[in-house]
Structure formats: structure tokens, C-alpha cells
Design a protein that fits this description.
Blueprint lengths: L3 H8 L6 H10 L1 E5 L4 E3 L7 E7 L1 E7 L5 E8 L3 E2 L2 H6 L6 E4 L3 E7 H10 L1 H27 L2 H11 L9 H8 L3 H15 L1
Antiparallel strand pairs: 1-8, 2-7, 3-6, 3-8, 4-5, 4-7
Helix pairs in contact: 4-5, 7-8
Length: about 200
């Protein structure tokens, strides 16, 4: 069953009965997203949280000069949404786009709240992943203010080990806040040191 990746993710944090699992799977909406297609635009209300079964998405903002600031990558086995918009049900400023052809499942905010009422263990699961997300965002913010580009790149490699060779250099550069040329030189220096 294609939702087994999500089930395994949930089982890391809570135990689901077969009935709980069946209830969850009835409210999930599977979706295929082609590369460069969007699941969320700026100034749109995020009505769904998205779990990646296959592929990879990016969540980002665009500044006034048209420069992308990547906030998060969502490879297989990750959730992604504009948390502010999803919880408040107000328009947000995050754009979510497929980096490659992807298979996802989506859970609406309304269905999530119903699950919380019907199966309290889901509230615990989403609390855990929301807390982890908040810690990750705070760590990222502090790293951007205090770490060198080399240290930020090392942090990227630790957080997203499966994406190091998979992503285009310009996306990694955007995530760590440098130009692609700077990242290329930095990688070359690291390779030369390891020889």
C-alpha cells in the first residue's frame, strides 16, 4: 500500500490500531505533482499539510528582487506546509513547489482537527512533529545568524544527507544563503583538503 511510508513515520511516535490506520487513510488525498508544479502559492491559504511519499518538494519565499529563499526541502518521508497559514487559515507567504515528479498525500486542516477529536493519539503525533519543526526552524534561524557558510553547508549535509548529490547546486546555495559560484568554490576547497 502506498501509504505505508506514512504509517511507518507515524509508528515512530505513536501506536495506531488497525481502525485508527483505516480512519486516517480514508481522509488522506493522494496526489501526483509534476516537477516545477506548485501545491501552494504565495498569499494563498494552506488548507492541507502534505506528506511526501516519493520525490522532493521545496518551500520558499521570493524577495522583492526575485531571489528565492529556500526555507525547507521535503524529501520522501517528510511533511511540509506553511505552518502559519495552515494553523491560522489565513493567507501565507510560503510557496511550495515540486523539485522532481512527486507522489504525496495531503491532509486537510478540517480532517486533521476531526482526527484530533476522534483519535487523541493523532494530536500527540502532530504535536511531536510540530515541535520538531519549530526546533528545526529556530536552529536554522540561529545558524544563519552565527555560522559561516561552510558550517551552514555542513548543517545542510547533516539534515538532508539524501539530497547532497541529488539537488542542483543553485538550490543548495539558496538554502544556505550563498551564490552557486561561492558554493562551488567552497566544495572544491573541501575536496582538495580531503585529498
Amino acid at each position: 500500500m502506498p501509504f505505508e511510508i506514512l504509517h511507518a513515520n507515524i509508528q515512530k511516535h505513536i501506536h495506531l490500531t488497525n481502525d485508527d490506520k483505516a480512519r486516517l487513510f480514508t481522509v488522506l488525498k493522494p496526489k501526483s505533482i509534476k516537477r516545477k508544479n506548485f501545491i501552494l502559492h504565495e498569499n494563498q491559504v494552506s488548507t492541507h499539510a502534505t506528506f511526501v511519499l516519493k520525490g522532493c518538494l521545496k518551500a520558499y519565499t521570493v524577495n522583492d528582487n526575485g531571489f528565492e529563499h529556500i526555507i525547507q526541502f521535503a524529501p520522501e518521508d517528510w511533511w511540509v506546509t506553511d505552518m502559519y497559514s495552515f494553523i491560522s487559515q489565513k493567507p501565507g507567504n510560503i510557496i511550495i513547489e515540486a523539485i522532481e515528479n512527486s507522489e504525496v498525500v495531503q491532509l486537510s486542516r478540517a480532517d486533521q482537527l476531526r482526527l484530533f477529536d476522534d483519535i487523541p493519539a493523532f494530536e500527540r503525533y502532530f504535536r511531536i512533529i510540530t515541535e520538531k519543526s519549530l526546533v528545526s526552524y529556530r536552529t536554522r534561524l540561529m545558524d544563519n545568524m552565527s555560522l559561516t557558510a561552510t558550517e551552514r553547508y555542513a548543517g545542510f549535509c547533516e539534515q538532508y544527507p539524501t539530497l547532497i548529490t541529488k539537488l542542483p547546486q543553485k538550490l543548495i546555495a539558496s538554502y544556505i544563503g550563498v551564490t552557486p559560484e561561492f558554493l562551488s568554490k567552497m566544495r572544491a576547497r573541501q575536496r582538495n583538503k580531503s585529498i
